[in-house]
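Readers of this paper often ask what the protein records in our data store actually look like. An entry from our holdings is shown next, in its original layout:
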Amino acid sequence: MSVEQTQDIGGGDETPAEGVTTMAAAAASYPVAPGHRLNVRSGPGTGYSVVRVLSEGARVRINCQTTGTWVSGPYGSSHVWDNIGSGEYVSDAYIYTGSDGYVAPRC
């Protein structure tokens, strides 16, 4: 059942299930830093091969996050890498998430 198809079957006084916030964060779309084309790499670091390049103005959905090589970018220095697809990682230093920490589950 998708989020759009949910229905309330409870009495209305339940607390949300743990993980709902995590699921919502993972489903969110985040912008690449303005004016930047961003290398998408095969792993969480600059030593991994580039599999494609995101164009200026692109947005990404973060599936999970992990640590990798340190990168300095428009949003500071970070060793957090965002998984945006199977075998696709981008440095969090180039993604505006509104947070210096994790916004998605760890990979």
Summary: The chain has a mean pLDDT of 82. The helical segments are 20-27.
